# Entry
Amino acid sequence: MDQEAKTSFSFASIAVSFFILIVLPLTITGVIISKGVVRVGEEATQANLRVLDDSQKLSIGARAQAVADAVAQFLSDVEKDIRIASILPRDEKSYATFLKSNTRGVVQPSQMGVVRVPVPVYDEIAFLNREGRVVLKVTADGTAVAGDGSYAQEDFFQRAKGLAPGEFYMGPVVGADVSRAEYEEGKRFEGTIRLASPVFDSSGFAGVVELSLNAVHLAEFTDHIIPTEPGMVFADVQVEDKNFAFMVYRDGMIISHPADYVIWGYDANNQPAPVWDETNYAQLSQTGEGGMNVLSMGFLDENLPKLHALASEGKAGSLTYTKEDSRVFVAYAPIPYYGGGFSKPQGFGWVGMIVDIDKYHNLSQQKVQEIQAKVERWQKSSIVVVFVSLILLFIIALILARGLYRSIQKASKDSDTPLQDDED
# Structure
């Protein structure tokens, strides 16, 4: 009876030992993992369940000003370029070298995904004589043309020829109008800013040098920003989310916007497209023809003209208001560039960042629900894995315990067998 108790006790002791050494740690680990999954889910939920609080509004306002300052610095660099262009030797090689040496990265889709590719800052450089006729024009693709028509009646030539040495003219953004249908098919607004500076020689006024700035480099400053998200978004920002940045020229025209059909341009007959207003908005906003000037949009949002007025006074700030039962936050910052005919305090224009607070919060709640569903799936999966592992390890522990017990029993029997004498 004692032997059986001893045997039973020994087997139980071995089994318990294996359980403690193998099964119990896994159980504890499983509990820790399960709680960790829940904790991570809770933290992710809190991180995504956001409201646009005061600190975030201040951050967006500061970001708008930072972008506006960056645009001003870019335009200052452009100013240096037109001054350099006005003193370059007027030959094909010098002009071509100048264009090749001025490139900036632009986000574009490719077979490898979204990448930054170098794009010439200027589409062309040209020299026009006293009469406004092209003496030499070189394009970014390396094409050189001599005697290519007259620009005598164009605004940039008329403005530049009356300037003093060292002065220059910088025009507005112009380009072909993009309709909504064209935009949905992938077409984007291709704008140009004309820069011109007078050139003088020993006889006085000799002509005008002209640069065509590719406006995509302006749009790059705002096209890849979601105000509530850090960093740049290297893809098209969805205007439907109402969480984007835009740029307004000093006259109120939108010159950068996630929906390019909002930008004003010239029609197929090279005539100015209509500007949206109360009489044509219902039709033109659907077709995307024409473009938006914030000064004519007071009927839709009375705060847009007010924001433009404040920015034109050189003031930066933000405004939170209700529009059509939806709370809207807008941060605005003037672009402090005052060269080329842009005077203080208005400057070049302003940068805006808009967030539909209610839509932003609803999108945040959707993310939270998605995260909670994932956490539940992860927790169930971890419980199943741990439970199955426990069963397997428990069986393995029993097998090992039984094997070890038998080995001990055999060794014990062998040690109890008496040795025979030589005589026996």
